[in-house]
Amino acid sequence: MPADALKCKECQTAYPLEARFVCERCFGPLEVSYSLPEGDPAALKRRIQAGPHTIWRYADFLPLQGPARSALPTGWTPLVKADRLAERLGLGELYIKNETANPTHSFKDRVVSVALARALELGFDTLACASTGNLANAVAAHAAAAGLPAYVLIPFDLEEPKILATGAYGAQIVAVRGNYDDVNRLCTEVSGERPNWAFVNINMRPYYAEGSKTLAFETVEQLGWELPDRIVGPIASGSQFTKIARGFQEFIDAGLVSGEVPKMNGAQAEGCSPVAKAFAEGHDVVRPVKPDTIAKSLAIGNPADGPYAIELARRTGGGIDAVTDDEIRAGVRLLAETTGIFTESAGGVTIATLAKLAARGDIGPDERVVAMVTGDGLKTIDVVRGTFEVTEIPASIDAFDSHFAPVAV
Ligand SMILES: *Cc1c(COP(=O)(O)O)cnc(C)c1O
Ligand SMILES: [Zn+2]
């Protein structure tokens, strides 16, 4: 399915497949458009199945001109059947898409892989980004693997594990005194005067965004070429959320799977919930907010794809909800205790939202639900600090027995 142009999402003006992200006519966002695949869906399916166990098995649906490969293989993460969690929530068939299994432990490896591959095709020599944490981590790692210098700009108050894990790769880390929206504004300015820098989520944004479709492609394939009924996933800028739905639609259009795009349920933290708020109030306009939440990965107060996320949730019969920081902490613990998967605060947002939907009776007993767990708990380790006790004892069997009395058999 060859990419043939960049198209404005608002006025449909077409542009060549260059490093552009905004429409010159109406300032709308640009996205990659494709011509429908020709030929036999069965042949396309065989080609996918014969591909590598990475996102590149879906090269037919990604915007690269040459053969796709990367030095740091990404994707094909487990889809885990979560029976114990389903039982706790009173749900039927529930799966966790476990994105902690990516090379830098978040879904950002997908979007960076695609942006980097396209940046190399376009001749860029430096990789950069504005990040809420995971993106910096992924940009630094993929640039290191490809042998490119990297500049990552982050809000100064990011969680320390994310900064340390990024510095390890040798990237230039720039901590900006401001929030993500300030960082993003600064990066847009820097990008204007550094023509050889590929900012993965600014001038490369249309290509970057395509990487999220692979979450949908993998989900379909891992369900045995079937569609789920409902997706629950996080919203920061809204890019991932909207592109997951696009991925399902493209597989349907290509004849690889039949049915409808799943109901799309978005999840935000109450401390940064401009999209959930607009959805609840029935607006199309998303009013920017100043973020204040432990879910820093999702702390984008002025989300670029917010209006499209709202339209998608409405159109599919899903919704967008917000959860409190305490609910997020409980969500992290609930997932860990029932599945063995330890997620960062963003995953807590998703699981807490899933729990809320279940409690409200929004999810039918026969539904097949997939929850997107997008990042690793080790990056936001403070979320679980103080939520359990450690028993300290002297090195003696009596001391052990006095705390944990042997159970008579
Ligand atoms: C970036 C990120 C998201 C989603 O971001 P969007 O801007 O909405 O695409 C979700 N979860 C985690 C952990 C992230 O780092
Ligand atoms: Zn336009």
TrEMBL record:
The keyword Lyase applies. Coiled coil: none annotated. The modification N6-(pyridoxal phosphate)lysine is found at residue 108. Keywords: Lyase, Pyridoxal phosphate. It comes from the Bacteria. Belongs to the threonine synthase family. PANTHER family: L-THREONINE DEHYDRATASE CATABOLIC TDCB, THREONINE DEHYDRATASE, MITOCHONDRIAL-RELATED. This is Threonine synthase. It comes from Solirubrobacter ginsenosidimutans. The gene is thrC.
